[in-house]
Specification:
There is one protein chain. The longest helix is centred in the middle third of the chain and has 16 residues. The protein is globular and about 55 Å long. 48% of the residues are buried. Helices cover 41% and strands 17% of the residues. The chain has one domain: Rossmann fold. With 244 residues, the chain is an alpha/beta fold.
Length: 244
């Protein structure tokens, strides 16, 4: 059975969606069957980070309502193991049929090794929808005090929800800024109160890839792309050291 992975962040602007797209693409590149579901209803952007902005993808609501099958999810042209469902735009998170959504995810488990749920930032209905079904949670944060505080609070909420497999990804790391701030990744882990899954450097290729409608891994093999590949291998259970 496949594994459901929710990608969450306590606040907006952490680069959560870019990390989701990079790691999911890396797993598909490694030969895994991967489904990405954009759950950021109304503000969907995962298609851009995946390089699928022109795909005309189905929404997950169209699938769970029975109008289409999971097999009709958009296929990435560069990574045939990667499929994608976008978020609906004509409803609110509160209008999502949780039972039907869960039934769709159970079907997805039988067809994909990993199903990524890219949740909206914050801790509202969309966050709870994704977290409630997740087997594993990846919490994305930056190194600024507000991001770390929000990550800590989000981790506490996930603990109250009974989520035990919660790991931290520190995104947009700038070594020079770390030296100026006199902070380390260990300090961020301690403040957030969560174990580390990986670190991702600040990388202009993330913006450039989206601008030219490509996925990050199609644009470069270094920097953030290499970091996403390392995180993907750790998700597979491989003992890959954490490094930039």
């Amino acid at each position: 059975m496949g594994e459901l992975i929710a990608i969450l962040s306590g606040k907006g602007g952490t680069g959560k969606t870019s990390v989701c797209a990079g790691v999911a693409t890396a797993l598909a590149q490694l030969g895994e069957d991967v489904l990405c579901i954009d759950c950021d209803i109304g503000l969907r952007n995962l298609d851009i980070s995946l390089g699928l902005a022109d795909s005309g993808a189905l929404s997950f609501r169209e699938v769970y309502e029975g109008n289409y099958d999971l097999s009709q999810a958009a296929v990435h042209p560069g990574y045939p193991k990667l499929r994608f469902l976008t978020a609906p735009v004509s409803c609110s998170p509160e209008e999502i049929n949780t039972e039907a959504f869960g039934h769709m995810l159970r079907k997805a488990r039988s067809q994909f090794t990993y199903i990524f749920l890219d949740a909206p930032a914050g801790i509202d209905a969309g966050f709870r929808l994704c977290a409630s079904f997740a087997d594993r949670v990846i919490l994305v944060t930056n190194s600024d005090p507000a991001s770390i505080r929000d990550a800590s609070r989000t981790g506490e909420l996930l603990e109250l929800m009974g989520k035990e497999s919660v790991r931290l990804v520190v995104n947009r790391i700038n070594p020079k800024m770390f030296d100026t701030m006199d902070i380390t990744v260990d300090d961020i882990m301690d403040q957030a109160g969560l174990p580390l899954l990986g670190i991702v450097p600040e990388d202009e290729h993330m913006v450039l890839a989206a601008t030219f409608r490509k996925s990050l891994l199609e644009s470069t093999k270094k920097g953030a792309a290499a970091a996403c590949r390392r995180i993907a291998k750790r998700i597979q259970g491989l003992p890959i050291p954490v490094s930039l």
